[in-house]
Amino acid sequence: MAQPLPVDEALQRLLAGVEPLGSEQVPLAEAVGRVLASDLHARRTQPPFPASAMDGYAVRAEDIATLPAYLRPAGESVAGKRYSGTLQPGEAVRIFTGAPVPEGADTILLQEDAIVHEDGRIEATEATARGRHIRKAGLDFSEGEKLLAAGRVLDAAALALAAAANHPVLDVARTPVVAILATGTELVAPGATPGPDQIVASNTYAIMALVQQAGGRSIDLGIVSDDLGALDDAIRRARESGADILVTLGGASVGDHDLVKDALGAAGMELDFWKIAMRPGKPLMYGRLGELRVLGLPGNPVSSIVCGHLFLKPLVAALTGQAYEHDIRSAVLGTPMGANESRRDYVRAVVASAEHHGDQLVATPFPTQDSSMLKTLAEANALIIREPHAPPADAGDPCKVLMLR
Description:
This protein is of the alpha/beta class. Helix content is 18%, strand content 30%.
């Protein structure tokens, strides 16, 4: 019997040959969080003209070089409506922030540095150097300039830049679609009344959240019982759904009622690997069903979610062209830990900064780590990573943690 794969090797095999799914055009307002599929270039120059950076008066620097200096009002320039004339010697144009600087003007006299007299004359109380408070045309960007590189996740600043560059539609990576199938006769949906031997299904909602965090979209295929006919029908629905990934929850272990692996094999799945040398989450399966990638996660809630973090999120991200990086940090243990066994262990813990050690992180594991216990996972903000056969460790010993939030 083949030995369980090390975690890192399993992840490498999972991601081997994964290519982005292509791109699609979406309106700017729908692009938040999406991944830019091609470089974005400016379709205009910003600002398109020399613009005032302050409220005041557009003047010639030489006219106010010697004080006192008095200027004649010639008009005004506001955002959206420029002064159409050319500034003459001894003149001033009232100007507001963002307004075009008139021809002939080369500096902005701040309004707090000017006194308007009753006869309308404007007295400059401060000399202003040439070019002060004027934003040059193209100060931000110029037409044709590359503004955003392919692969950029579109956040608020990137979307604002794209809008300013006059892009109403953006070319983004296609969103991976993940079909999620929960299996087990013992499961009922939240809100239902469980029978005496049933439990409420929870994994689907955690996996949907992980898919969304990684940039994917989920399809909920519901719950199917431990029956080959029902599983065959669910697998058919998954293939017809247009999904890129099928995630099965439970049923991939070695029990008499764990039928998912057999059902997928009967449907033609090419199995890549099954069983990982990790805890929680040993019964993890990966294969291909034609173009559909299949990831079988364990049924225990904590195992399912930890495997989702380690394997599903990187796979979804890779299909958008992203390299997913887990947030792994250095810390010290808050309590002693015993020797580890032959699998890499991911131990639920709370990580906090030490009160008297600057930025040093201290990771304190929960005393009970059963893979059915969701409460401790919800309370944990990290997983302590313990390598296979790690020796006993004392409080204060260094460790690595994978941050969850």
